[in-house]
Amino acid sequence: MADTTNVLTLEYEIMPVLAQRRSTRAYSDKAVAAEVVEQIFAAASSAASCYGEQPWRYIMGSKTSSSEAYEKILGGVLEFNQVWAKAAPVLAVGVAKLNFSHDGNANGWAKYDVGQATATLAIEATELGLQIHQMAGFSPDALRAAFNIPEGFEPVVVFTLGYPGPASALPDQTREREEAPRTRKPLAEFLFEGAWPTPAGERYDQATV
Description:
This protein has seven helices and four strands, in the order ααβααβαβαβα. By secondary structure, it is α+β, with helices and mostly antiparallel strands.
């Protein structure tokens, strides 16, 4: 069953699963079955990538099946994110392979492609009634050391995965962010046909997760 909490409303109707995707901070203590986790990560394989390189790698830790890895990932997350992320049953690190396999040259699109893959698995998770929350607040060096990530690979994102839970379980400030109406910039502010304009009054406060 899809998560229908705080569904995004846009100026055009889009696929429901896209409008239902959100970056929740409140998680249920319900465990995520191994086959569901694998189905979600399998969706990353459908993402496009430069030369079909598929430069994404994921390190996953589950509270129920790989608690040591879970704690290592949590330890690499900055404290302000740990406060809520520790409730999620699954944590993951998205890692980019920085060079092409076919010629060894630098892959300038590797991080972009990891983003595409992670966005794709986020939609699969939403379709199954789960949510992920992607974080920039983590220490790449701590994760590299914790998991012996070799040269040529770079951690680019950490995210939670789980079934959404009640916002009431969150600290006050975090709960307010969780319950705030979701808004997005109007199309006219980011879609330009024919030329590059100089948009007036860009609103950077219109990007709540």
